[in-house]
Predict the 3D structure of the following.
Amino acid sequence: MISISDQHGLIMRIPNLVKWAGGKTSSLKSIVKAVPKMFNNYYEPFFGGGALFWALKVENKIKHAVISDVNKDLVNLLLAVRDRPNELSYELDKYRDASGADAYYKIRKRFNETRTKELLDTERAAMFLYLNRNGYNGLWRTNAAGEYNVPYGGYKRFYLANDNDIRFYASLLKDTTIMNATYEMPLRNAKKGDFVFLDPPYFRDKDSNFVQYNAHMFREEDHRNLKKITEDLTSREVKVMITNRYCAEVSSIFGSFRMAVFKNRKPINRIGTARSGFNEVVITNF
């Protein structure tokens, strides 16, 4: 949920564009405190739900941004919102009354049958958003063949962005470069005074209840590679902030940087007895 003030000073609340497993909405207040007061370009290569980006854009703290994700369909949605908001709203209208399991699995089947190499496909973007809002727990998971396979979430009511919401998000994406890329690629262009926010899939150890919700499991070596990239960015005087689950391994890997630990009360496990929240850490080089 994004809160903004209208011309009369009244608070308006805009629902999040997507639901996203691992999204930062629940821990946003703690994360925002660590954002540098001044920076040039903003980079976010693990975009996901984009909670921090949307919050900073609403506050006019981002001049130009480069956002990216390896999820091609998420990137397709963002491009459709930015470049074809009217077409996307028209396509979304087709799914507003498509409730129930039968409708969900029918749309999921069509979505998997219409995969394309092209980006900026508004019909597919609308299906993506519908599936995201109706699939189980905001997960986005694919099988080995690249087919989306999240089961129906069983929601009696669901939210799809309306025309006004789409236009609002389109306005926030102005002056934003959107890329479908691995996290390393856009960071090559980061320069002195820029700010990079890294929100990788959180570290998972043998005692963790975290589940894989991407086609690629982010392993310990990936976190170590992220540390090397952070060291390179530091040498280029780029400001970096990383979020992760707080554990001994993360503390060891990123121990040379500043750390601030906080409690996230949001449950991370579907088993009720394990819904006690977890410790997160904000890692910075500034």
